[in-house]
């Protein structure tokens, strides 16, 4: 549900089947993944405890560490991993899961933290004994608000037409002021004011812009002489 509701891949283990000190390392060898499928993998990103591999990061769990109806102690894992390694892991087991599809994209720290909060809320009836490596969210990006650039790109002098679009973006976590725009962490793809302009135009609707014909000056060429082209 964490994946479906929040967009953050997560995995749950039977904690009694694990030792301490989980880590993420490259692994090559044979494994039995969920569904009792035997696979041979090479250089995949695996979650390991002190003794064995316990899952393939953001790809698939293993039969040996899965939780069951008899499980009383659970361990939930959320991580941010290299998307290329996640894609490689899915190819190695020749099986794409919802988790690997999402993990193959960029997962922001904000989304991962929301996933952790979701798990804590959903398991409020369980005793949470310990949280290891609390997810730290990066400082919010601040981008200078360039009014002149917005006028240039839109071809409009009256920027009040974008007020409703800016209100909608504000509901999504963007903070607009006269001098800057604060970008929510989950929008890792917004890095420049041109990205802000694109978001404003999307919510304003490109269909509201009046198309204008571009004036193109045609050029005539002269005959070739000595394999050279003169204008």
TrEMBL record:
It is an enzyme of class 6 (ligase). One of its GO terms (molecular function) is RNA binding. One of its GO terms (cellular component) is cytoplasm. The keyword Iron does not apply. One of its GO terms (biological process) is phenylalanyl-tRNA aminoacylation. Keywords: Ligase. InterPro entries: B3/B4_tRNA-bd, DNA-bd_dom_put_sf, Phe-tRNA_synthase-like_B3/B4, tRNA_synthase_B5-dom. The keyword Ligase applies. Residues 138-211 form the B5 domain. Its EC number is 6.1.1.20. It holds the Pfam family B3_4. It comes from the Bacteria. This is Phenylalanine--tRNA ligase beta subunit. It comes from Mycoplasmopsis edwardii.
């Amino acid at each position: 549900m964490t994946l479906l509701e929040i967009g953050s891949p997560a995995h749950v283990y039977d904690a009694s089947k694990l030792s301490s000190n989980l880590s993420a390392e490259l692994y090559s060898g044979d494994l039995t993944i969920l569904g009792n499928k035997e696979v041979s993998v090479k250089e995949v990103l695996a979650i390991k405890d002190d003794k064995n591999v316990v899952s393939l990061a953001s790809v698939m769990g293993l039969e040996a560490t899965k939780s069951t109806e008899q499980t009383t102690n659970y361990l939930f894992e959320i991580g941010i991993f290299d998307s290329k390694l996640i894609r490689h892991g899915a190819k190695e087991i020749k099986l794409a899961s919802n988790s690997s599809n999402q993990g193959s994209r960029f997962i922001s720290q904000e989304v991962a933290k929301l996933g952790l909060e979701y798990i804590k809320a959903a398991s409020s009836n369980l005793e949470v004994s310990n949280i290891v490596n609390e997810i730290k969210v990066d400082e919010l990006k601040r981008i200078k608000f360039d009014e002149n650039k917005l006028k240039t790109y839109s071809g409009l002098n009256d920027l009040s037409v974008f007020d409703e679009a800016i209100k909608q973006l504000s509901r999504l976590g963007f903070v607009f002021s006269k001098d800057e725009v604060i970008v929510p962490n989950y929008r890792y793809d917004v890095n420049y004011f041109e990205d802000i302009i694109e978001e404003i135009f999307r919510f304003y609707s490109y269909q509201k812009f009046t198309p204008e014909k571009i004036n193109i000056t045609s050029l005539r060429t002269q005959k070739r002489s000595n394999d050279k082209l003169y204008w």
